[in-house]
């Protein structure tokens, strides 16, 4: 079970986008995430007339290391650490360490 999942709101804690917030679009197996609007890079692409693809400079999101983001806690309006807990009915859930609130129900 991952601490950060697809669809989570995260806040960047290191790097050039420090302090910015975004939604996780993809979680990769190598421990990196793609976050919407974060870590934007410019990719110079060559046009391909066979497929109708136009050439030029394309901006897209690059992967960011999972250790450089924290799960956003709306109660405190800050990033927060995440722990795991097993509920009475046997489900394993994530919770915020500062407020002890369950992240996902």
Question: What's the short story on this structure?
Answer:
The protein has strands at 9-12, 21-27, 32-35, 40-45, 56-61, 64-65, 69-73, 78-80, 82-86, 92-96. The strands form three sheets. It has a six-stranded antiparallel beta sheet with strand order 6-3-2-1-7-8, with no helix packed on it.
Secondary structure: number of strands: 10
End-to-end Cα distance, whole Å, is 15 Å
Give the proportion of residues in helices. Answer: under 10%
Number of H/I helices = 0
* Whole-angstrom Rg: 17 Å
Lateral arrangement of strands in the main beta sheet? 6-3-2-1-7-8
Tell me about the biggest sheet?
A: 6 strands, antiparallel
Shape: elongated
Helix-strand pattern: EEEEEEEEEE
CATH topology of the domain at 9-74: SH3 type barrels
CATH class of the domain at 9-74: Mainly Beta
Explained architecture:
By secondary structure, the protein is mostly beta strands. It has a domain at 9-74: SH3 type barrels (Roll), CATH 2.30.30. The chain contains no helices and ten strands. It has strands at 9-12, 21-27, 32-35, 40-45, 56-61, 64-65, 69-73, 78-80, 82-86, 92-96. The strands form three sheets. The protein has a six-stranded antiparallel beta sheet with strand order 6-3-2-1-7-8, with no helix packed on it. It has a two-stranded antiparallel ribbon with strand order 4-5. β7 (69-73) and β8 (78-80) form a beta hairpin. The chain is elongated and about 60 Å long. The relative contact order is 0.21.
């Amino acid at each position: 079970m991952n601490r950060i999942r697809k669809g989570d709101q995260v806040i960047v804690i290191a790097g050039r986008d420090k302090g910015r917030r975004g939604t996780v679009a993809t979680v990769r197996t190598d421990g990196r995430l793609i976050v919407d609007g974060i870590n934007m890079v410019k990719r110079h692409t060559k046009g391909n007339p066979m497929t109708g693809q136009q050439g030029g400079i394309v901006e897209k999101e690059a992967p960011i290391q999972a250790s450089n983001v924290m799960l956003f806690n709306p109660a405190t309006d800050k990033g927060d650490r995440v722990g795991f807990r097993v509920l009475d009915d046997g489900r394993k859930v994530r919770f915020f360490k500062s407020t002890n609130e369950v992240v996902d129900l």
